[in-house]
Design goal:
The chain is of the alpha/beta class and about 375 residues long. The chain has 10 helices and 12 strands.
């Protein structure tokens, strides 16, 4: 067991006493000495002196009478809050009434002790200091957590940008290298078809041409998924292309409604909406087991809203909160980076609705397109 620190070795408290009565000040000093509290104390009786002392010294705690000539302790509390100092503040006064004491505590003042109860002053000071230190530690922990979350968000944004850059690079390689090679093969097959003599050669050329058409279509689809060039035509045409492609591949009836086909949000917001729809439709095809999907795209009242609903199996609470559900987490982080948020409404057996919301009037504060591409 660690022995208690001897009183003589305990650090001395530096106290600021706002009090207009020298007699009451001496009583306070006597009470503190009686409890063998190591301290030094400065008395002031005006707001000017109070402010000057706050600026000149580093105090551990403030003791304040409630009513002083021309002002109250609440005025001093206001000056303290306006200053850079953050200190525990204890009211040490005559009877001020329960309602006034409660109001002072609600403002943030640490504690209240009547002047006729000075035998408990040392205990009140110790309690106020302990609570103040605990709150300061909590505030530091909250600030550290916020800083950590900010660093994590910045890393997520960087990672997202890196992914989009890599997608764009792969799409260019497919277009320049594979696309060029497939085009050359197509020309050769056309020459063979024109100059071939035997039926077998022509049949093989036709089969090869069919496979080539499939490869060209697949490469174009992959390029579109990697880098949606169709976004250059606007958000509505891009979402429409996604919906039509999804319906062709899956056979699920897919409808798209919009209040403004010509909407033109910023490029980062368009890409966020496109990727959200893309991921949502991918999840529908994998898990929903549905017969219908409805997509609603709106920019009403200065807010971009993208809603994708299906009538499928829904998502269980366990699956929705699965720590490995990186697709959903990625969508939420992408929405946050764009200045918006993502909501998922689902009930087992009653379908799922994914809603992306981005205030368009905050577009000026969202990242530039380079942050995403």
């Amino acid at each position: 067991m660690v022995p208690p620190v001897p009183k003589s070795l305990q650090p001395s408290l530096n106290l600021l006493h706002l009090e207009d009565s020298e007699l009451d000040h001496q009583l306070v000093c006597r009470a503190l000495r009686r409890d063998k509290l190591a301290f030094q104390i400065t008395r002031v009786d005006s707001l000017v002196d109070f402010s000057q002392q706050l600026a000149a010294q580093a105090f551990d705690l403030i003791l304040a009478d409630y009513r002083l000539p021309g002002f109250t302790a609440l005025d001093a509390w206001g000056l303290l809050q306006a200053s850079a100092a953050r200190l525990p503040f204890v009211l040490l006064s005559g009877a001020i009434g329960e309602s006034a004491a409660v109001a002072a505590i609600q403002l943030g003042i640490s504690d209240y002790l009547p002047k006729d109860d000075l035998q408990n002053l040392a205990r009140v000071i110790a309690s106020a200091l302990e609570v103040f230190k605990a709150k300061a530690a909590e505030a530091r922990a909250v600030a550290d957590l916020a800083a950590s979350e900010q660093r994590l968000a910045q890393f997520a944004q960087h990672l997202q940008s890196a992914i989009e850059n890599e997608r764009a690079a792969i799409a260019r390689e497919i277009h320049d290298d594979i696309g060029g090679s497939l085009a050359a093969v197509r020309l050769d097959l056309a020459w063979i078809a024109r100059h071939g003599q035997s039926a077998d050669m022509l049949e093989h050329a036709a089969t090869a041409n069919d496979m080539l058409q499939h490869a060209i279509g697949a490469s174009q689809r992959i390029m579109m998924n990697l880098r949606p060039a169709i976004l250059d035509q606007g958000l509505y045409p891009a979402i429409q292309w996604l919906a039509e492609s999804f319906q062709r591949r899956s056979g699920v009836k897919t409808s798209l409604l919009t209040n403004h086909p010509g909407m033109q949000p910023s490029k980062p917001i368009q890409l966020t909406a496109y990727r959200t729809a893309q991921e949502a439709l991918t999840n529908v095809s994998k898990y929903a087991n549905c017969s219908e999907v409805k997509i609603d795209l709106s920019d009403a009242e200065g807010v971009l809203t993208l809603e994708i609903s299906d009538n499928g199996d829904g998502i269980s609470e366990e699956a929705l909160n699965n720590p490995e559900a990186f697709g959903i987490r990625g969508l939420k982080e992408r929405a946050r980076v764009a200045g918006g948020w993502l909501d998922i409404s689902t009930r087992k057996g009653h379908g799922t609705t994914v809603i992306l919301t981005i205030p368009l009037d905050e577009a000026s504060t969202t990242p530039t397109e380079a942050d995403f591409l």
